[in-house]
Predict the structure.
Amino acid sequence: MEPILVILGGSGSKIRNPEEREIYLGESLESGFLELKEGKEALSAVVKAVIVMEDAPCFNAGTGSVPNLLGEVEMDASVMTSEGLFGAVAAIRDVKNPIKVAMDVAVKTEHLMLAGDGAVRFARLMGHKKYDPLTDELKELYKEKKSSYYKDIDRMRSLYSLETVGAVAIDRFGGMAVALSTGGIMLHLPGRVGDTPIIGGGIYASQRGAIAATGHGEGIMRHMVAKRADDLLDKHNGEYAAEEVIKKVEADFGIIIVDRDGKVGVAYNTKYMCWGIKTEDYKKVQGA
Ligand code: GLY
């Protein structure tokens, strides 16, 4: 099987810093694809690709995550493989790479998801140091808008939301995996959990394919977007499944899929979606 990596950098009506994003999307593809090239499994490729985007301040995940209504960052992340391995963290605070903690949940516990204080405590036990992911840019914006944020809430949400970073991959053995990470929706209520850590919501993988979604979490969860796409893969390829869920589901979102035959689907109904793809001899990134 020819290895393939597809990544997601967020979607929405406006994409901040598209040029900067293109650079990091490129780095993310290189870093993730190197794993596949070296013969490693799809899971390590998608996690590597997501770490690059979590560390880049221009994406709403890890460093650069948007603040909630109290000015604090709460993040969601998850991983899943075609073999059924799953791990997620929800509303986790004060860590640099939520995706690494989700990996630890998947491989070091018998649980599927840890949330809030329990997730933070688990992260510390696993050696993830305390880290504030809120950037100065977003801290300033929050402070500046704090007194008027109820008035401005819709505009701020439309500027800074609908962004999840993610990756799907198939490795040379035909194994598939997906990783997903987000800071959620700008100025969300504390404790809000989006679609990113919800199995079948924003993320799903099976023997049929690996699927990642970005967009309005409540809409994605309500329609179980990723599982719906997986069901379509029973009789159709990844390209068809991506286009069909976009057509049928009423929510603002985008989706990437790689299926068991290496067919890729990329579709979105938002104005923009950042994404990229890499194979041995092909590479493409789209910053907005
Ligand atoms: N899709 C990201 C979120 O709504 O949390």
In short: The domain at 4-286 is CATH 3.60.20.30 (Glutamine Phosphoribosylpyrophosphate, subunit 1, domain 1). The pocket of glycine is lined by residues 164, 182, 184-185, 194-196, 202, 214-217 (CB under 6 Å).
